Amino acid sequence: AAPRDLAGRHVVVSAGGTREAIDPVRFIGNRSSGLQGYALARTAVARGARVTLVAANVALPDPAGADIAAVTSAEEMRAAVLEAAAGADAVVMAAAVADFRPAGYRGSKIKKTDGAEPEPIRLVKNPDILAELGRERRPGQVVVGFAAETDDVLANGRAKLARKGSDLLVVNQVGEDLTFGRPDNAAVILGADGSRTEVPRGAKEALADAVWDLVAERLPAPPRD
Ligand code: C5P
């Protein structure tokens, strides 16, 4: 049986990938399936936590026992995550949040015109939710990010951990069918305290449990009543 080490804790998990609308029928998206975030939600429920799962465009069965907020874009995800995080003990940002969105939403479908090249789509930066959580966290709150890297995985991971102000960063190598849509994953979890935990390739549940082990160690002792 799972340890009940998250009993009495409220955790927020984001999952999936945001979609940034171009026009009513098109969007810029990414390859995140939501499997890792859903595994995090399921394992947290099993360990006794109250779980708020903020899911962006995930086509998976709802994990039993989690409260689910469905969102589409990065801006919607930001609003849902910040609202849930206000009272949470830990926030794990497993979602692939689009770094950019189209600068202007076209209210009607973009048409092709004979002989003319299409208009370029200008992009603007999205808010960085993880960085905001790192800056504005409540005392004792544990903030965890994910980093999908293709090159210089560890050096980029350390730099990202510092830049985002997270307590933990789960760094996985992506590309060439290594992670997206697969039931298994492998990662190195970097801690702001200098720790480094290697999680060998295995089920996404196993990586999720490794994340919760590290989160549980970092949570302040619960108030006694
Ligand atoms: O900077 P990068 O996109 O590689 O960072 C990945 C981490 O930051 C993930 O935990 C992701 O959920 C989070 N993120 C975010 N808001 C963004 C971009 C990424 O919270 N706009």
Automatic annotation (TrEMBL):
Alphabetical keyword list: Decarboxylase, Flavoprotein, FMN, Ligase, Lyase, Magnesium, Metal-binding, Multifunctional enzyme
Pathway note: Cofactor biosynthesis; coenzyme A biosynthesis; CoA from (R)-pantothenate: step 2/5; Cofactor biosynthesis; coenzyme A biosynthesis; CoA from (R)-pantothenate: step 3/5
GO terms, biological process: coenzyme A biosynthetic process; pantothenate catabolic process
Residues engaged in binding CTP: 99, 109, 127-130, 146, 160, 164
GO MF assignments: FMN binding; metal ion binding; phosphopantothenate--cysteine ligase activity; phosphopantothenoylcysteine decarboxylase activity
Substrates-to-products reaction catalysed: N-[(R)-4-phosphopantothenoyl]-L-cysteine + H(+) = (R)-4'-phosphopantetheine + CO2; (R)-4'-phosphopantothenate + L-cysteine + CTP = N-[(R)-4-phosphopantothenoyl]-L-cysteine + CMP + diphosphate + H(+)
Enzyme Commission number(s) of this protein: 4.1.1.36, 6.3.2.5
Residue ranges of every copy of the DNA/pantothenate metabolism flavoprotein C-terminal domain listed in the record: 6-217
Cofactor(s) this protein requires: FMN; Mg(2+)
GO cellular component: phosphopantothenoylcysteine decarboxylase complex
Cofactor binding, note field: Binds 1 FMN per subunit.
Stretches for region Phosphopantothenate--cysteine ligase: 11-225
Similarity section: In the C-terminal section; belongs to the PPC synthetase family. In the N-terminal section; belongs to the HFCD (homo-oligomeric flavin containing Cys decarboxylase) superfamily.
Function: Catalyzes two sequential steps in the biosynthesis of coenzyme A. In the first step cysteine is conjugated to 4'-phosphopantothenate to form 4-phosphopantothenoylcysteine. In the second step the latter compound is decarboxylated to form 4'-phosphopantotheine. Catalyzes two steps in the biosynthesis of coenzyme A. In the first step cysteine is conjugated to 4'-phosphopantothenate to form 4-phosphopantothenoylcysteine, in the latter compound is decarboxylated to form 4'-phosphopantotheine.
Designated name of the protein: Coenzyme A biosynthesis bifunctional protein CoaBC
Species annotation: Actinomadura syzygii
Full protein stretch here: 182 to 406 of 406
